[in-house]
Specification:
single chain, 506 residues, alpha/beta, 2 domains, iron-sulfur
Length: 506
C-alpha cells in the first residue's frame, strides 16, 4: 500500500502548473526548430522565429510563454493500492494545487476562470476550478498528466457524429480551414474516434498529452494503419497552406495524434482539438516518496534563433501622431514597428463600451485616432511594467468592430489571427486597418512595453482598459483599408506552392 500525503500531492500540482507555464516540452521545440529551418514563407518564418525566441526567453526568465495561462487539466491514473492521507476530495486537492501554483508571487499566472458561465461570469481570481479526470488502474502509484489549455485553441475544438461509412480524412480537411488561425498554429491536432460523444472529446484532449514524434515516425515508416492515417493527415493538413499564425506557409501542424475506442454499430463519434504554439503539459509519477521532481529541459534543446526588430524591412510608426491617412497607406503583409501610446480592451471591455454608448454615457477614455490592442496581460513582477502580454483572438471582437470604428474615433486594431467578413467590411468602410501580433510570443511582446497603467474598468481585472507605452512593438498588416486580408491571400498562395514542393517531416 502506497500512501500519498496531502501536501506532497498539492505541491506536485502547484509545481507542475508553474513548470509548464514557462517550459515548452523539448519535443515541441525540436519539431518547431525543424519547421523553422525548412519554412520558405517569410511571414511564417518570422512568426516561428518570434515563437522560438519567446520560448527561450521564458525558459530563462521563468515567465509565462503566453499571457493566457490556460484552464488546467489534470489527468490521474490512480493505482488501486494507493491511499491518500487526506480528508479532501480529489477535486479539492487539485484545485488547491492550482491555486497555490497560480498565486505564486515569483511568477503569478493569469486567472482566466469565471464562475457562472451564463450570467455573472465573475473571475475566481485563482484560476480554479480545474478540470479533473480520474481513472482507477492496477498498481501502487499515481500517474499524473497536467496541462494548461489556452482559450484560443480550446475554442476551436470540434465534434461531429459521422455516419459509419463517412471519411475521417475528408471531415478533418473540411474542418481545419474553418478553424481559422485563432488556435495559433503551428501546433498539433488531437483526434478521438469512437466511444460516445464525451469519450471521443476526452480521447482527443488526452492525445495532446503525447510526445510529438512525427519526425521519428516518418523516418522509420508506419507500422500499422493508425500510423499510416496519422501521416496522411499530417501531410494533407500541411498541404492546406494555412501556415504559422495562418499567414500561409509549409507547416500548419507538427503532428497529428489519434486515439480510438470501440463504439456503437450505428455511430462514428469524432472529436478534434488543437494544441497551440503555447503547448504546455508535463507528466510525472507519485510513489509516496515525496512531491514530484520535474527536470527542466536543457537550453541546448533550443535552436540558435534570436528574433530582433528589422529596421530595414519594417516601417516605424509613431502612434502618438498617427492619422487615418497613414493607416490607409499600409499594405497587406507589411511589417510595422509601433512606438507610442495605445489602448487595450477585449471582450468584457467592448461589451461595457457598447452598453455605455447605448445609454449615452461618456467613456472613460477617448479613442479618437487611437489604436486598440486586444490583450489581457499577466500581472507584472519585480521590475516589469507588465507581464507577458500577447494578443488574444480577434474574431471575438468582430461583433463590436463596426460600433468602435463608427462611434469612438478608433482607427486601428491589433490582435491575433483572422477577422470575419463583417469586421473586414467595417474596416474597409471606415478606411481602418487590422494589425496582427504573433500569438505565442507574449513575453517577447511585453519587452516592447515600456509603460502600462489602467485607465478604465479596473474592476475587470486583466480585461480592464490599459494604456501601454510601447517601443518597436512588431505587428503585421493583416487587413488593409481596402479590406484585403493576408489570412485569405497567404494560405491561398502557399496552397498552390505546396502542391509543387515535396513535403518532408518536421
Amino acid at each position: 500500500m502506497t500512501i500519498i500525503k496531502e501536501n506532497d500531492f498539492i505541491q506536485s500540482i502547484a509545481d507542475g502548473v508553474q513548470f509548464i507555464s514557462y517550459y515548452h516540452p523539448a519535443d515541441y521545440i525540436q519539431h518547431l526548430a525543424r519547421a523553422y529551418e525548412r519554412e520558405q514563407s517569410p511571414a511564417a518564418k518570422d512568426a516561428i522565429a518570434q515563437i522560438l525566441t519567446n520560448s527561450r526567453m521564458c525558459a530563462e526568465g521563468r515567465r509565462p510563454i503566453c499571457q493566457d495561462t490556460g484552464v488546467v487539466n489534470v489527468f490521474l491514473k490512480i493505482g488501486m493500492d494507493v491511499r491518500f492521507d487526506t480528508r479532501r476530495g480529489m477535486q479539492e486537492l487539485c484545485d488547491e494545487g492550482v491555486r497555490q501554483g497560480y498565486l505564486n508571487p515569483d511568477n503569478p499566472l493569469r486567472a482566466s476562470i469565471l464562475t457562472d458561465p451564463l450570467f455573472t461570469r465573475k473571475n475566481t481570481r485563482d484560476n480554479t476550478p480545474c478540470i479533473v479526470s480520474v481513472e482507477l488502474v492496477p498498481g501502487d502509484k499515481v500517474d499524473v498528466q497536467i496541462a494548461a489549455k489556452g482559450g484560443g485553441s480550446e475554442n476551436k475544438s470540434k465534434f461531429v457524429m459521422l455516419n459509419p461509412s463517412d471519411s475521417l480524412v475528408d471531415w478533418v480537411l473540411k474542418t481545419v480551414p474553418q478553424m481559422g488561425a485563432g488556435w495559433c498554429p503551428p501546433g498539433m491536432l488531437g483526434i478521438g474516434v469512437g466511444g460516445t460523444a464525451e469519450k471521443a472529446m476526452l480521447m482527443a484532449k488526452q492525445a495532446l498529452m503525447e510526445d510529438i514524434d512525427m519526425y521519428e515516425l516518418m523516418q522509420r515508416g508506419p507500422q500499422n494503419k493508425l500510423e499510416e492515417l496519422r501521416i496522411e493527415l499530417y501531410e494533407k493538413v500541411n498541404a492546406l497552406g494555412i501556415g504559422a499564425q495562418g499567414l500561409g506557409g509549409l507547416t500548419t501542424v507538427l503532428d497529428v495524434k489519434i486515439n480510438t475506442f470501440p463504439t456503437h454499430a450505428a455511430s462514428k463519434p469524432v472529436a478534434m482539438i488543437p494544441n497551440c504554439a503555447a503547448t504546455r503539459h508535463a507528466h510525472f509519477t507519485l510513489d509516496g516518496s515525496g512531491p514530484a521532481v520535474l527536470t527542466p529541459p536543457s537550453l541546448s534543446d533550443w535552436p540558435d534563433v534570436h528574433w530582433a526588430p528589422d529596421y530595414n524591412k519594417s516601417l516605424q510608426v509613431d502612434l502618438n501622431t498617427l492619422t487615418k491617412e497613414q493607416v490607409a497607406s499600409w499594405k497587406p503583409g507589411q511589417t510595422l514597428l509601433l512606438s507610442g501610446k495605445m489602448l487595450t480592451g477585449r471582450d468584457a471591455a467592448h461589451k461595457r463600451i457598447q452598453d455605455m454608448l447605448e445609454r449615452g454615457e461618456p467613456l472613460p477614455v477617448d479613442f479618437t485616432n487611437r489604436v486598440i490592442y486586444y490583450v489581457g496581460p499577466v500581472d507584472p513582477v519585480r521590475d516589469e511594467v507588465v507581464g507577458p502580454a500577447g494578443p488574444t483572438t480577434s474574431t471575438r471582437m468582430d461583433k463590436f468592430t463596426g460600433m468602435m470604428l463608427e462611434k469612438t474615433g478608433l482607427i486601428s486594431m491589433i490582435g491575433k489571427a483572422e477577422r470575419g467578413p463583417a469586421a473586414i467590411e467595417a474596416i474597409r468602410r471606415h478606411g481602418s486597418a487590422y494589425l496582427m501580433a504573433v500569438g505565442g510570443s507574449a513575453y517577447l511582446v511585453s519587452k516592447a512595453i515600456r509603460g502600462a497603467k489602467v485607465v478604465g474598468f479596473e474592476d475587470l481585472g486583466m480585461e480592464a482598459i490599459y494604456e501601454f507605452d510601447v517601443k518597436d512593438m512588431p505587428v503585421t498588416v493583416a487587413v488593409d483599408s481596402q479590406g484585403v486580408s493576408v489570412h485569405d491571400t497567404g494560405p491561398r498562395e502557399w496552397r498552390s506552392r505546396i502542391a509543387e514542393i515535396p513535403l518532408v517531416p518536421v
